[in-house]
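User: Could you check the structure of this?
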Amino acid sequence: MADKIFEVSTTREPVASGPFQPTWESLEQYRTPEWFRDAKFGIWAHWGPQCQPEAGDWYARRMYIEGSPQYKYHVEKYGHPSRFGFKDV
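Assistant: Sure, the predicted structure tokens are below.
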């Protein structure tokens, strides 16, 4: 238990200051690493049309399942999925 308390207490210590000062001149000294220019970075944004019915990310799948809440919502709001599918939302 004492070890756990020590671990928790050390997480509250401030971060040590680094080699940079809070000035523009200091920041201009920074060089971007070579790997950064070729690094692949992806973001998956889940704020799409499926957010409207508040059905989560499964809206596109469940809107085609007759009887599901998403199907009922889609038919009421947009019409039958065969005429107005997810790609049209």
